[in-house]
Amino acid sequence: xxxxxxxxxxxxxxxxxxxxxxxxxxxxxxxxxxxxxxxxxxxxxxxxxxxxxxxxxxxxxxxxxxxxxxxxxxxxxxxxxxxxxxxxxxxxxxxxxxxxxxxxxxxxxxxxxxxxxx
Amino acid sequence: xxxxxxxxxxxxxxxxxxxxxxxxxxxxxxxxxxxxxxxxxxxxxxxxxxxxxxxxxxxxxxxxxxxxxxxxxxxxxxxxxxxxxxxxxxxxxxxxxxxxxxxxxxxxxxxxxxxxxx
Amino acid sequence: xxxxxxxxxxxxxxxxxxxxxxxxxxxxxxxxxxxxxxxxxxxxxxxxxxxxxxxxxxxxxxxxxxxxxxxxxxxxxxxxxxxxxxxxxxxxxxxxxxxxxxxxxxxxxxxxxxxxxx
Amino acid sequence: xxxxxxxxxxxxxxxxxxxxxxxxxxxxxxxxxxxxxxxxxxxxxxxxxxxxxxxxxxxxxxxxxxxxxxxxxxxxxxxxxxxxxxxxxxxxxxxxxxxxxxxxxxxxxxxxxxxxxx
Lengths: 118, 118, 118, 118
Description:
The structure is a homotetramer of 118-residue chains.
Chain A lengths: L1 H4 L2 H14 L8 H17 L9 H4 L3 H25 L3 H15 L2 H4 L7
Helix pairs in contact in A: 2-5, 3-5
C-alpha cells in the first residue's frame, strides 16, 4: 500500500519533476492551478451526480468506475500538489493545523452524529 | 517541514479519527464528499478570481492571504483524504499511476513549453 | 410573475448597466466571469450538500433558505448574463439550440425515466 | 436576436417540456440539479483555463470555440432553469432583486474601477 510509505514530499517531488520536464511552471500560476483543481473536482463529482447519497457508496465497487474515480482523485491531488509547490506551502502542516482548528470548532461531544448545531 | 516526514496514510488516519470521533461516516458518502471537495475548491479559487494569472503568483506572499489559502487547500485535502478513506482507495498509488499515464500522453519533448499540441 | 414578462435581453441590459456604472468591464474577462460563475454555483450547491436528494426538495420550503437559495441562483444568473454580454452571445438562441440537440441525443421514448441507456 | 423577444418563462417552459417528456423530474432534485450546474460551470471554465485574462476576451472570436462556449453556457442555463422550475422560484425576480441589493452594497461612486474597497 503506497500510502503507508509515501510521504507528501515524495508526491510533491514527483509532480514537480513532471512539470519541470515540460517547462510548465510558466502556466502553473496559482490562479490557473486553482481553476484546474475546481475543474477536476467537478469531473469527480460527475460520477456521483445521478445516484443518491447511499447508492454512491456502491459506485466504487464497480472495477471500471473505481479506476475512473481513482484517476479523477489523482487529477485533483496533482493540482493540489502543484499548487503547494507553486506557493511553497507545506500541505501536511496545513492539514494537521486545520484538523486541530476544526476539532475546536466542532467539539466531538456536541457534534456527534450531527453536522450542525441543534 | 512536515511534508518531508508525513506519509499519506498518516494524514488519512488523522482525518479518519476526526470523522470517527464525531460519528460522521454516515454523512460521508462519496456523493456528499465530492460535493464538499468541489465547494472547497471554489473557495480556494475565490482568492485568485480578480487578479490576473501573473499577479496571482504574488498573492501567496501576503501573510494573511497565505494563511487563508493554506486553510482552503487543507479543506480540499481533507475531503480528498476522507473520500480515499470512504472508498478504501490508495491515493499515492492513484497519483503515481496517473503521472505515468500523463507522461505518455504528454511526451516531454513534444509538450515542452506548450500546454497543447500544435 | 416577472418571468412571464421579462425578456432575457431586459435582464442582460440590467446587468450591463450595473457593470457599466461601476466601470467593471475591465475585470469582466470571460476567464474571470467563468470563475465567478463556478464559485457561485458552488455556493448554491452548499445549501444541499448534507441532505439527501429527496430531502433537498423540501429545503426550498423554508422561507429563509428559499431567499438564500434565490440569491445564489441570482448570482449564478448574473455571471451568465455578464458572460453573454462580454461575448455578445445570444443566450436564448444557445438554450433553444441545445434543447433541440439534446432532444435528438436523448430520444424521449428511449430515455423515459432513465438518465442513461440500458 | 431571440434574447430580445424571449421571456424567461418561455425558456423555463421549453426546459420543463424537455424534462417532462422524459419523465426526468424524479432525478431533478435541487441537490442533483445544483451538482449539474456546478459541473457545467466547470466545463465552461475549462475553455479559459490556460489563457490569461486578457487573452480570454479573444477566445470567443474563434467560431468553433464560440459554438462550444455557447453550448456550455446553454448547459449552465438549462440547469438553472430546471432548478427554478423545481423550486417554483421566479428567476427574473431574484435577479432584479439581487442587482438592487448589490447596487446598495457596491455604490457606483465608491467602487468605480475597483472590485473591492480601498
